[in-house]
Amino acid sequence: MPASGRMTRSYTANTPSLGGGRPFTRRPLSGIRQKLSRPTTVTSFGVTSACQTRPASRQTRFGLSCQAKWALLNKQVVASVQRRETAERLEHDMSTWMRERQSLGRRLARVKRRLAREEVRLTSAEESGKESSQMERLRTRVQQSHEQV
């Protein structure tokens, strides 16, 4: 007995206590234990895959299943990325259109103000032109009246 007080059992090959002199061999695992104890491999994409650890008889069927799952996952990821890119492009276009609309609104306001100033100036010029023509008519009348006198 060891110093710790626990009973330990040593498994050594060719021990008569384990079955009459037969070498000790482990029984193959089955079910979930076999699945959990199977080593996984890491693919180049960083995803662990059990496809390569299956027996050769089930390799093709499981491989196709694994490929189909991978293709479906890949398709979903690509669709999600495309949706996000489309949304980002739409947001970018919307912001561009909003900026364009704001700048066009500012330009329209400037043109309206300029047009109002021009109208005021033109009306005042026309009035001054009218006044000057009226003044000339009055002067001619005055001159005519002076000539008559």
TrEMBL record:
Origin species, per record, is Protopolystoma xenopodis
Q: Where does the source fall among the domains of life?
A: Eukaryota
Q: Which stretches are tagged as biased composition: Basic and acidic residues?
A: 127-139
GO cellular component terms, A-Z: microtubule
Q: Does the keyword Coiled coil apply?
A: yes
Q: Where is the KIF21A/B second helical domain?
A: 66-148
Q: Where is this region: Disordered?
A: 1-31, 122-149
Keywords in alphabetical order: Coiled coil, Cytoplasm, Microtubule
Q: Where is the composition biased (Polar residues)?
A: 7-17
User: Which named protein is this?
Assistant: KIF21A/B second helical domain-containing protein
